[in-house]
Each structure stands twice: as C-alpha cells, then as structure tokens.
Amino acid sequence: MAASGYSDLREKLKSMTPHRDEEKNKYVDGASNGSGKGRKRKFRESDDDDCEHSDDSTELREQEARRVRSSIQQRSIFTPEECALIEEKIDDVVAQGEAGLYREHTVDRAPLRNKYFFGEGYTYGSQLEKRGPGQERLYRKGEVDEIPSWVHELVIKRLVSSGVIPEGFVNSAVINDYQPGGCIVSHVDPLHIFARPIVSVSFFSDSALCFGCRFQFKPIRVSEPVFVLPVRRGSVTVLSGYAADDITHCIRPQDIKQRRAVIILRKTRPDAPRLNSDSPLSSSPAERPAPLKAKRSHRKADPDAAHRPRVLEMDKEENRHPSASRHRRHSISSENYWRRGQDSDKHRESSGRKVKMRRH
Predict the structure, then answer these.
(1) pTM of this prediction?
(2) Catalytic residues
(3) Which among 153, 181, 224, 324 could bridge 10 via Cys, Cβ 3.0 to 4.6 Å?
(4) E strands, the chain, where?
(5) How far apart are the C-alpha atoms of 266 and 11, rounded to whole Å?
(6) Tens digits of residue pLDDT in 223-243
(7) Distance of alpha carbon 253 from alpha carbon 208, whole angstroms
C-alpha cells in the first residue's frame, strides 16, 4: 500500500472532499449591492465554474431527471442461481486475463477496474491520438477475442427470449470488473461507434448508475448527480434516447462497496470508423502473426486476483515525486471524458488545473 494509505477510492473521496452539506448551506446575499434581491445558493464545482442553484435551476434539474428516467428500461431477469453460474464464468475470464491468454487489445487495466473487450474493441480515454468525443476508433477486425460462447448461451439468448433485444443484435460484449471504490468517469457511449440501445447486466453485488455528474481529480471528487439509478445484481438496464445520447453517465467510487461486474452488450454501427493500418495502436499485417496469436505472459492464472486490492497509480506517483506531481498532467486510463477544447487542454497542461467533466 502506498504511503498515503489509500487503496480504496471511497476512502480518498471521503477524506479529501469538503462536506457536501456545508457547501450547500453557503449562501451569497445579493443585498450587498443594496438591492436586497438575487439571494441564491452558490455551489462551487471548480475554480473556474460557479453553478448557482436557484428554484429555477432546481426545476430544470428535476425535468432533466424525468427525461433520463423515461428513457431507461430496467428488468430483473436473472435468478440468483443463474447469476452464480455467470459469475463463475466471469472469474474464468479474469483468470485467463491474468494468465495472458487473451489478445493484446482484449484486456484493458485501470486502477480498481479491469475491462475485457470481446467481439469488438475500441480506443478511448488516454489511448486516443486526439482527445474529445468523436475521436474513438474501433480496432481492426481480429484484434480482440471473439465473444465467449457462454455469453451467447447464458446471457444473450436469455435477453432475446425475454424480448429485451432482437436476435443477432449484439456483436460487442464488454465485461467491466470493479473492485471496491472503482469507478468509470462521466461519458456517453460513442454515438458514431454504437447503435442504440445500450444493454448492461449487473453481477456480484448491487450498485448505482449516475447521470449528469462531473469528475475532478487530485483529489478525486464527484458532483451531485442529476439522477441516480440503483442497479441490482441480476438486473438488466437498457439505455436509449435521452439517457443514452444527451447526458453523461458514470459509476462513482462510493457506489462500488463490494466487487461488482457488469456485462455491456452493444451493436457497432456499420459505418463506425476503425484504426488505420498505419496507426501506432494498430500493427501492420507484416508485423502481426497470421493468424493472430494470443498475448501470453509467464504469470500463472490466479482466480482470486480480481479480489486483491490494488495500489492506485496516482498514489505511487505522488509518493515518488511529491513536489512535482501537481505540475504533471494527469492521464486517466478509463472511459473517455469530455474537455472544452484543445486550447483549454493546453492551458491545463501548463498550469496544472484540475480536469473537469462537462455534462452533455
């Protein structure tokens, strides 16, 4: 464990975030200009962004929350026995990943969260050559492993028979495996990559999916969500319309209290862009064996590896360079996040300003 003593993002969040109730009870009195008007509650989300919460803004947030809720379908389909069987299969995926039995782009590791791409994988976050929405690209065909047969038999067929999705809809399956305190920052599933709806099934434990949050880092903080959707073990969540396209969603650190896994089932668009053959993230046919071989390591498979707490990379770096860490541009290996533009991005690199999520 790092010298800072944190292996769980929830602990870091709790210890370093000002108490939300205290912030909400701060008032700015407009009477200072003699008018006695304009008394509004001010909540500071970042150094350069003040959000005034008046009655009007509260009503707007409530309207937005209703729009989010109306575009979500949620059903409890999988029994505890079915969940237990699927969870064993997820443990097998983790063990194979630890043993290096998957192709290079199948497994993506982040602090307290591992992602496993099947069928189709894509670049996002720090992997992007250019940052921002719309820059995501599918990997070339064959650069991630095929969807496992058990996903088809135990999950997809069950959803088809229940009328959740049509036959042949899914060609991309992603397993996100979270440790306590893990998270995915606010994002919208790339519109140019994936058709709608977005379907996810939750396993191992209950959690929550939040909409309209903003993330800040060093220390990590998350603003108040517009809408919080509880997700239970064995439940199926279907996002479409406003919830899928017009507002960001995320998993907050405080909502992952136990290990949790989610299987995300999607369909890629026929015209979704792919990495070019000359991209640094995609090897040329001459450099890649044919057929593509699995990337292997000398480590033995460890089914319990997913339960082992990890030390956050941010803590390691701060311990190595405590004085210089605040000047270093922080790179996040997680879901793609929004920025205000390249000029703002360059300004943050030079000044060390905090990264702010922008809600769409």
Answers:
(1) 0.65
(2) 122
(3) 181
(4) 27-28, 40-46, 49-53, 72-76, 107-110, 113-118, 172-178, 184-187, 198-203, 207-211, 215-216, 221-222, 227-231, 235-239, 249-251, 260-266
(5) 33
(6) 999 999 999 999 999 999 999
(7) 10
